[in-house]
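#dry-run=false #mode=assembly
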Amino acid sequence: MAILDIEGLDLRYRTDRGPAEALSEVSLRVERGEAIGIVGESGCGKSTLLKAVMGVMPPNAAITAGAIRFEGRDLVAAGPEAWRRIRWKGVAMIAQSALNALNPVKRVDAQIAEAITTHESRTRAEVEARTRELLALVGVDPGRARDYPHQFSGGMRQRVLIAMALALRPPLLLADEPTTALDVIVQDQIFRRIGALRGELGFAMVLVTHDLALVIENCDRIAVMYGGLVVEEGPVAAIATASCHPYTLGLYNALSRLGQRRQPVSIPGRPPDPLAPPAGCRFAPRCPFAIERCHRERPVMQALSARHAARCLRAAEMNDLRPAAALPETWEGPQP
Amino acid sequence: MAFLLSFLGAVWKAPTGRFSLVLLALFLVAAILGPLVAPHDPMLRNYGPDHKLLRLAGPSWDHWLGTTLMGRDIASQMLHGARPALLVGGLTAFGTVAIGMNIGLVAGYFGGRTDDVLMRITDMFLGLPFLPFIIIVLSLTGRSLTTIVVAMTLVMWRSTARVIRAQVLSLREMPFVAAARITGASDLAIVYREIAPNVLPLALVNAAFALAWAIITEASIGFLGFGDPNSITWGSILYDAYASQTMYRAPWWVVPPGIAIMVLVSAVYFVGRAYEEVLNPRLRGI
Amino acid sequence: MTAYVLRRLAYMAITLFAMITLMFFMFRLLPGDPTATVISPALDEGAREAMRRRFGLDQPLLTQYLAYLRNLTVLDFGLSFRTSAPAWEMIELRLVNTLLLILPSMIAAYAIGAFGGALIAWHRGGKAEASVVLFATAMQSAPLFWLSMLAILVFSILLGWFPTGHIVTPGRFPGPSWRMYLTADFLHHLALPFLVNTLYQLCFPLLLMRSTMLSTIGEDYVELARMKGLTERRVLYGHAMRNSLLPLATTLPMILGWAVAGSVVIETVFSWPGLGLLMIEAISGSDYPVVQGAFLLIAVLTILGTFVADLLYGLLDPRITYR
Ligand SMILES: Nc1ncnc2c1ncn2[C@@H]1O[C@H](COP(=O)(O)OP(=O)(O)OP(=O)(O)O)[C@@H](O)[C@H]1O
Ligand SMILES: [Mg+2]
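#status=ok
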């Protein structure tokens, strides 16, 4: 049984200007021990998806359809109290803005201990030993457990958050851009640490990032999101070599890979307005391969192989289109 | 001026802000025209058709809000009271923000010893008990609207100064200040051209709260018997009612001045808060 | 930490000293010279001279000032111009009365305001929140003396539930007596001013707490607390409210200042024999030693409040270092 199985999830935000559809028909399966990367432009709904899995949506958000199954049990149907018990024990999360995620007026050890005691009854000594062990695990001097967050550097706070996330040995870890605020060297250290911990503890991971390279290095599978939809999903290797969605191809162009003499090419145009998404394919207005049908018809997820699927009407033709997608000229062409 | 318009525009967007602005406009009209449109002379003792003094007469067509123990028309007194309330409140708010903003700007920008000295002085003023201090000053210097404004300003600038200083402390570190410094702008130019416009919104919110607080305080002073003996204020109406010992028989004498103060001050608070919500949308609870 | 407390204490002493000096010279130098107003012109020259000498008003200003300072150190505020009794004796009794009214009601106001504000912010966006905000703003906008008058009108005169004023039924305790405070009669008299003052004073902390909470609720650490699976109660009390109390604590001195200012008003309306009423009575009687004494004591209360709030803030917020 998959550890996490999201099926047909729709989520809306109430805003001053009307309802905004932040997630539509999102389906995603995460198997035990697997690492899956979610990529997509800013505002495509990555954080919204992770928060929905955690069940901590802001009050103006509502799940209007779909299921979030954790170990087979639908949390949306199970209700807030059952959901609360799964949080951190079953799924833990490293939030996007790690620098402000620690409460500034509480000691670090207390904030870790709180996560433990909420779910497990432990003696003080046990909790204290566990806290120190966790800090050592992520490479923070356990002697500083009684410090306050503002006494730590950004990288150390990030490690504290990882330690906190692992406090209950959850089988699933969600990481929302865990290193965006950090410099490249620290980012590297942290990912190596996470990789080592995963090898040791074997938890599954959902990694959200703008950075395709991070996904390629750290994950087994990729899900590409665009405008609240998952537009392509599959094993890292399949997507890297045989992506069947123009948006993914565009993202790959945008990625400047070391050792390759290619200029990064960005995708012109802007992401769709969540208040009024396009009628047909949401990517059509920016897509160099869009045909008239794309502006009319909503594509559905098409299975291309056992584990690879894409949401594109022309997915089957992609083998022929792919070479053109690699050329910068294709993306510079006149856009409507 | 442009700033004032943008302020009004921002407040107008919120329904409570719009409603409050309309109320404030009504009070402003009452302050300007009140004495002209008042149906009676507020100090005149009115007599009934039977030539007897109209003592504590209830509301009627001729006297909308009834009369006082001395037979004076309460509605006319109310109309006369709007002007001193807004005048005293407005002048005090202005003085408070003028002093508080300058001290906050200078202390926050220059820091160091200047900051230390100015903040020690501010702390000292913070130790002054508000109403008792004003009353003592008034009892020593004599009672007039001017002395009331001066006495209130003297104790009210202190909190504005602190708030502005805190804001300046963080603004001072902003890139645009460094940029101005590189172009060779003098300290004074930086403080008043670069930083001051950025604290203006906060100063305005403070002015609104100072206005509200000054109106209440002026009424309290009047009620305690330290008001300007030559003007009719809502506080003095209440003082007369209280001193006459008959107010509990004449609710129409006691209720209107308090309601007027409450509505006016609430409107000022709501305008201030509507503006705060524009500055900080989280306050709207989204 | 100790050094910090000591320095704050030193500041407090300096502030107090400045206040005493200011008061002394204000009374001597401002237009209303006590020798002119207190000592009635009706007295003949000899009697006036004798009186001047008796109150030390014939000495040079500096001598008077030094004597005044020296006397203050032993709580000697001088003799009342009116009763000729030591001013401190009159003040001391009144201080207890003021504290008994103001302190419990401020504690109640602060506690209710903090909880109430936190709760309406937590359950934001409903009709309940809007009505509480409207009600609190209206209360805060009304003058306290007027609310007191209305309360007397409704609860004492119309309903007859409470006495209209005084600390105990007049005539029941002819002289000052500690037993007075132990009677049900005292509590009965305390109830209405206590309730009015509490209701009025809780509006400010309530509204401030609400707006602080609204900012805090959106903070990432509150979200993390929820992600950790803490119960909503623990997120509310342990994180959101805990952190929102900080800004509220910094306003404590201001609130205390207002409360003391409010005491002048509420004591006047309820004829409550406290410091505020004493001050007003003494001013109308030009009894300056008593006025000064009462004022200084009120100022000491305010300054003490500032001091406590500073310490409290330092305790609550670890980011504040005791420099
Ligand atoms: N509380 C909210 N109320 C209304 N709209 C929201 C809210 N939070 C997010 N949105 C909208 O939902 C969409 C998805 O936002 P989300 O934060 O999930 O994006 P993201 O993919 O995580 O972006 P980023 O990469 O910048 O973190 C955006 O259009 C955003 O404006
Ligand atoms: Mg995000």
